Every structure is written in structure tokens, then in C-alpha cells.
Amino acid sequence: MRDRSLRGQGATGIRLHLAANTMSAHLEQYPSGTYPRGHRHGPGAHIVILSGEGYSFLWEEGQPRIRIDWRPGSLFVPPANWFHQHFNPDNEPVRYLALKPWGFTYKVEDLSKTDQDIRAGGTQIDYKDQDPEIHAIFLSECSKRGTEVRVAI
Ligand SMILES: [Fe+2]
């Protein structure tokens, strides 16, 4: 797994691009007590939780957040251009697989922008710019599980 700290503290992952295929995928892992930055992109990314238990927030800009609690085997699809952010308050690493259509028929996402700060023309919200309630909820969720908070914002 490669360093993916541009997405989140301690994050690792790999991208899977299959030859002559209409699908692509990436695998990402987040350590216990951490979470990646929120971001948004085009439609069609199917998130399959492989290990760990936690939750995600999904929201359309200017609208209330929707919370999805997940466990291994859960699957959800962030709608087109909705922000989404995944949280690991669990005592073990969380790992998920994102399955996405790829190619000229479906332009799912511009991967060059999903790791870039929204202030610099990207589609990612830095920790310091997120709604403070997001981190407060995470602290509460870690406390409920007795999980050490490792993310520093
Ligand atoms: Fe995403």
C-alpha cells in the first residue's frame, strides 16, 4: 500500500486500473482513530467496506449532512458532487474498496483534483476548514469505543 496522506493522516492505498476495462478501483485504509478529509467528485463510486466499523457523512453543498453507519460488507454510493467523508472510530484499521466506472462514457472523477484543497481549485476540504462539529462528533464516537484519537487537526 502506498502513502495516501494527501487524503488523510496515516492513510494508505492502491489504485487498480484494469486493462481494456470499463471499471477501475482503489483500495484505501485508515488507521484507528483517524479520518480522511472530505471531498467530492462525479457519480458512480461504489464504496464496499472490507474491514472495520465506522460511519460516513454525505452532504450536498449547503445542505444538512446524512450519516451512514457501516460495517464489513456495507455498500454505499455518494451521489454526484456530494461531499463525503469517512470516519474510523474503531480500534482497528478500516479498509474499503471503491469500485468506479472508468473511461469516456462515464467520467467519474478527475483524480488529480480529489486530493487537492478546494481553495487551490481542488475538491477536498482541509481539516482546518471543515465544520468544527465534524471533529467534535468524531471525538465523541472514539470516546464511546475507548479508541485513542490519532488524527491531529
Ligand atoms: Fe470519494
How would you describe this structure to a colleague?
- This protein has 153 residues and is mainly β.
- It has one domain: Jelly Rolls, CATH 2.60.120.
- It has 2 helices and 11 strands; from the N terminus they run ββββββββββαβα.
- A 6-stranded antiparallel sheet has the order 1-2-3-10-5-8, with no helix packed on it. It has a 3-stranded antiparallel sheet with strand order 7-6-9, with no helix packed on it.
- The chain is globular, with a radius of gyration of 15 Å.
- The two termini are 24 Å apart.
- Residues 39, 41, 45, 84 line the site of fe (ii) ion (FE2).
Q: What would the principal axes of the Cα set say about the shape?
A: globular
Radius of gyration: 15 Å
Q: Provide a count of the helices.
A: 2
Taking strands numbered 1, 2, ... along the chain, how are they ordered across the largest sheet?
A: 1-2-3-10-5-8
Q: State the share of residues found in helices, binned by percent.
A: 10-25%
Strand content: 25-35%
Number-wise, the strands total: 11
Defining traits:
single chain; 153 residues; mainly beta; Jelly Rolls; six-stranded antiparallel β-sheet; three-stranded antiparallel β-sheet; 11 strands; 12% helix; 34% strand; globular; binds fe (ii) ion
Task: Lay out the secondary structure.
Elements: E1 2-3, E2 12-17, E3 23-30, E4 38-39, E5 46-51, E6 54-59, E7 66-70, E8 75-76, E9 83-87, E10 94-101, H1 111-114, E11 124-125, H2 132-145
Antiparallel strand pairs: 1-2, 2-3, 3-10, 4-11, 5-8, 5-10, 6-7, 6-9
Fe (ii) ion binds next to loops.
